[in-house]
Amino acid sequence: MTAESTQGAVAPAGTGRGVASGPILRTEGLTKRFGGLTAVNNVSIAIERGEIRAIIGPNGAGKSTFFNCLTGVLRPTSGRIFLNGEDIAGRPPNEVSHKGLARSYQITNILPGATVLENVRVAAQSRHHPWNMVRNRFSFTDIVDRARAVLDSVGLRDDEDELAANLSHGAQRNLEIGIALATEPQLLCLDEPTAGMSVSETRATVELVRRIATDLTIVIVEHDMEVVMGLAKTITVLDYGEVLAEGTPAQIQANPRVQEVYLKT
Questions:
Q1: What is the Cα–Cα distance from 10 to 19, expressed in whole angstroms?
Q2: What letter would DSSP give residue 224?
Q3: How far apart are CA 94 and CA 24, in angstroms?
Q4: Which of 92, 130, 213, 249 is the most exposed place for a label (fewest CB within 10 A)?
């Protein structure tokens, strides 16, 4: 059953406003099977430009598998994934990233032995300059400037010389968002961005997501319902790998099937 979904498009970031129309991301019949287990089953959704879309559901609902199919970590068994109208289903993660889709991970994925600046600089350089064993990495002044601008946007500029391993958990999660932003995405997928955070860290990350959402489309998997209801314009609920419901936060909260299988109210 699918509740009425909301619409409202704005232009994506990083590519010039108004250069494309229609949903930035669309799936048709997306399915992923592992042997006899169907983790994602015939999922068809459309995500409008500029929206924050939340994907929620109970444990085992298929949220992570869905994310992994979108980002190229897993090859779908069947179905299609359109990013800006181009089918990216089955493309490897590096190609998906170059098409404009970036992600963070449920488990922090940073270079702990590198500085904060180096973590972001490496990601930024991947978009503009090939690997060069001879040229000094800081000779690309445009890349260093880009990395510092990203650190400003995630509130980590003052920590640029700190080892990533020495950051607090919340700052490491925000650094990971910065690494994703450095690749200049149009669509950012955030997998449990507030997992393990304190109340104050969660509030700071919610504000960060709101700030960067002014220039990006964001898809977020998150268990914290206060975070979801406060951020998302549209919520898609998965259950047993299928779309159970879709709609505004108010519609989802009022949906009796969602209450029964997930919200438990």
A1: 11
A2: -
A3: 19
A4: 130
The residue behind tokens 């010389």 is: 161
Global model pTM greater than 0.85: no
Bridge-based pairing of strands 52-56 and 217-221 is parallel
Q: How far is CA 259 from CA 113, 203, 244, 264, in A?
A: 44, 25, 11, 5
Positive or negative torsion for Cα 174, 86, 126, 184: negative
Contact residues for 221 (Cβ-Cβ < 8 A; gap 6+): 54, 55, 56, 63, 64, 67, 106, 189, 190, 191, 192
For the record, the structure tokens of 15 come out as: 């590519």
**CA-based angle 223:190:143, to the nearest 5?**
155
Tell me how far CA of residue 180 lies from CA of 68, 164, 257, in angstroms.
15, 15, 35
Q: Which helix (H) or strand (E) holds 253?
A: helix 249-254
Taking the CB of residue 25, how many other CB atoms lie within 10 A of it? 23
Q: What's the distance, CA 5 to chain centroid?
A: 20
**Nearest to residue 218, comparing CAs of 61, 25, 57?**
25
**Tens digits of per-residue pLDDT, 38-94?**
999 999 999 999 999 999 999 899 999 999 999 999 999 999 999 999 999 999 998
- What is the rounded distance in angstroms from the CA atom of residue 135 to the CA atom of residue 181? 24
Beta-bridge partners for 188:
102, 218
Instruction: Check if the beta carbon of residue 28 is closer than 8 Å to that of residue 64.
Output: no
Contact 9, 49 (CB under 8 A): yes
**Would you tell me how many other CB atoms lie within 10 Å of the CB of residue 58?**
16
